[in-house]
Amino acid sequence: MGGRADRNAGHGTRDPAGTPLVGRRDALRVLDGALDSVAGGSFRFLALSGDPGAGKTRLLGELAEAGASRGLRVLAGRAAEFEQQMPFGALVDALDDQLEERRPDLDPATTRLLSTVFPALTGTAGGGAPAMAPAGALSAMTAGGHGTSSSNGDTTVLPAHEHRPDPAPETLGVARYQLHRAVRHLLEELAYDDGLVLLLDDVHWADDASIELLGYLVRHPPRAKVLIGVAYRPAQAPPRLAGLVDVAGEHGVSVTADPFTIEEVEEFLGPGTSRSRCQSLYEASGGNPFYLEALARKDGADRPAAADPEVWGTLPDLGDITELPPAVRTALQLELSGLDATVLLIAQAAAVAADEFEPALAAAGAQRPDAEALAALDELAARDVVRPASAGRFRFRHPLVRHVVYGSAAAGWRLGAHARIARYLADLGAPATLRAHHVERSATYGDRSAIATLVEAARAVAPQAPATAAHWLKAALRLMPEDSDQADADGEPPRVRLLVELAHAQTVSGQLVEGRETARTLLRLLPPDDHDRRARAVQMCAVMERQLNRHQEARALVLDELHRIPDPQAPAAVLLRTRLVADRLMRVDVRGAQAVLDRMPENAPGWAPGLRVAVASLRVMPAYAGGRVDDAIAYSEAADAVYAEAPDSHIAEALDHVPWLCWAEVMLGRYEPALRRLERCVAIARATGQAAYITFLLNAQARAYTLLGRLAEAADAAEEATETSRMVRSAETVVFGLTQQCLVAAWSGEHERALRLGEEAVAGDAGAGEWWGAMARYARGVALVNAGRLEEGAVAIVEACGDPGSPKLDPSTLMSCAELLAYCESHREKDGDPGKWAGIAEMLGGIGVPADAGLVRLARAHATRTSDPAASAALAAEAARMLDGAGRRLEAGRAELASGLAYQAAGDRDRARERLRAAVTIFEECGARALADQTVREQRRLGVRVPGPRRGRKGDEPFGLSPREYEIATLVAQGCTNQQVAEKLFLSVRTVETHLSRVFAKLGVSSRVGVATALNALPGSDRA
Q1: Over 777-831, what HEC string results?
Q2: How far is CA 135 from CA 154, 355, 393, 542, 712, in A?
Q3: What is the pLDDT of residues 969-1014, one digit of tens each?
Q4: Within the chain, how many helices (H) and strands (E) appear?
Q5: What is the spatial distance between Cα 352 and Cα 363, in angstroms, rounded to a whole number?
Q6: pTM score of the predicted model
Q7: 390/358 Cα distance (integer angstroms)
Q8: CA R_g for the chain
């Protein structure tokens, strides 16, 4: 650290006096190593931790300068202590000016997503006003522009539903996961030419949405030369932030800003300071560079000539600023006492205004003319209290200085300053998101205008930053007067409506305990005889209890409320019974679920439209799981009719039960209607923000794609399911997502990753003995089998099946288990009994699902592999035909492989070659790389000449790329964006990104430039 305090890393990273860095040699070596890795094409996540004033910002400055010297683009920003609820504040601080100067080449959909966060992108893709406007967006307003209109002066507590302006569709439908992908794509574009160093300081003050985004980026790093560096105080960092470097694994780098040693203190203070003085300052500061500097200032030239209270006035006591040692508080207090009264007033107003403030805001807060504020800022800059930032703005020289200046103002004056700034912003037309921070700190009880502003701000940020939305909704509820419990024009009390919104925001942001308590508060407010609304509230509570792994409490809550309803056929009672059906299905209690369903009619007068959808959705699974396939298909077709008549709003009311219908249809082999319904319902879930249910839909989608052999699409759906579950922080849904990811990775041939995902899924099972825990064990078993660890895999699969009398898996998965276990037993060197499992498969396959008949024959083929290879080959060939006819391409390929190997064992080489050729074609189309490689090896044993990976012929593309991967790589090498590739090949952008990530891995590159270079170097290339 230099001899003066740091400048912000994003706005001039060098020390203003140009002083050399003291110490930090070990830290600098780590920073250089991280930059070398990035320059070489890798991603790095660097976590820099240290106490307040330890020199983190200065080290980020050194990192920025070193990155720039290597030709990397450097962007930096920081979070702020008094604006901790501002969504993505540090990221906007770092990127927004850059986006205004240089618009990246992004497709319109991605730009619309990003415009909800970055004001610089507002209007660039027809997206309208941004959902959020950080402090940096104010400059356009002070220059005469106008932002989103405000509700300033509105006398209503809460606008009625029919009068509430509809959010822009692109804002309403934004899923946080989609936004995270868009930010990753943005970073890749910014890094495209030279690489990128993104530095975020004081991240311990970042909002929950920012930490969530960082978590996504370390789990799914940008595929470019990118270093993300974050600095934070370990004592104030939330656990999710502190754990990011571990999540990053081999990409993570950790650095600690330690206190100075006595020798470094002597170097810092210079030869003009005596050794005894150095020792006393070292002891007083604890070696903390900022504290050391503050104490040194007190005795140096910066000390004011006098601090006479009669001249300067008496400053308030700073004893409540507990993070500063008393000696440092005194030093900073003396520094402030040397300021003219007007200058101090402007400094205090600036501290209230924002982390990075404009002179006009400080003037408004201090009630001083602009010219007077500018003169005061000149004085503050001369004394190094504040420093110029970008675009005519200023920042305090260190967050601790702002902390002290803010605390030096009287509490009542601060309240008034916040109110004045809120009014000033409202007069400018600033959006509610920019005013909410000041309104929250200045509003009084019953202030209806303030309540409206906070609610407007919460609704604006809810899709991207639900934790911030929850914070502002709680603030609005604290201000709401008691008469707000009276029903409004909608027939619903505003407090009740806000509590529903708050519980939803808390749930989707992962604040499950808080959400449960909010839902219970809502329940207490509702009259005992208001059965319909109480039933909906109970259902909400029960879902939260489940997500907290409190399954018994969820059941007890539903049953208790059910007993309060006098009419067992009332709509409220039926709604609660649907919750009991879902609970029993999760526990694989098929008979119990059917017994509850038997007490429900198909429809009845007084039912809400969504209730009919819910009941129709639940009828299929118990019938299928009970072996009544014809009934299940009839119920499924009846559900088709209900869904065809229902608008999206009705389906949105039943989304917690829709997944059961979709899963049952997948198990029945009705893939086309299942995927069509899933696509519609996923869109509805995104549009209505029902993240708790979207994960189950996405997992059903992933399962369907996996069974159909569409592994790239399955990987996309499973990844989104897992990432969405992590945001909600529900262990149950995280395990669901990990399970599907494990299965996709296992069949794709990513064995190490599949095993890691399987272990994580099994570890996440809370031991509730439910279907999702058994599915995790099944997936891990599949991963072990595909990795060649057959005995371990067989044990895991048998464990997943559970007690034969009351299995924990569905019939479809049990059939897959029987076939795989027959395969494992057939490969045991001795004492194998594949016939046992083939017999079990035959018993399970009698319920009439088309694909099951193929698996029965494949299991029998395994059983006869050694005793009668010719018969085994014929059975496997028949299985392949049946499975292919049922749409199960991946398993059809496995049957073709088994047939080819059996024909080879029987000495029929021609048929063996034919079957192996069919198998390798299927595996390549599906993206099952390990199985394709295995089949190619068997072909070569039969004397088939299989071209090498660089011959470039159709069907065996360069570098081992699949035909689709080679097609995408060629378009990328021609300069096409992902959006352009998607449009040319009629794919989704997500699918293109998935293929491209595999292209990067196979080519051993980390950027699009690398793809172009590799393809251009091929023999015969026009550009070689």
Answers
A1: HHHHHHHHHHCCCHHHHHHHHHHHHCCCCCCCCCHHHHHHHHHHHHHHHHCCCCC
A2: 24, 8, 10, 40, 41
A3: 888 888 888 877 876 776 667 778 878 888 887 887 777 878 888 8
A4: 52, 8
A5: 11
A6: 0.76
A7: 10
A8: 32
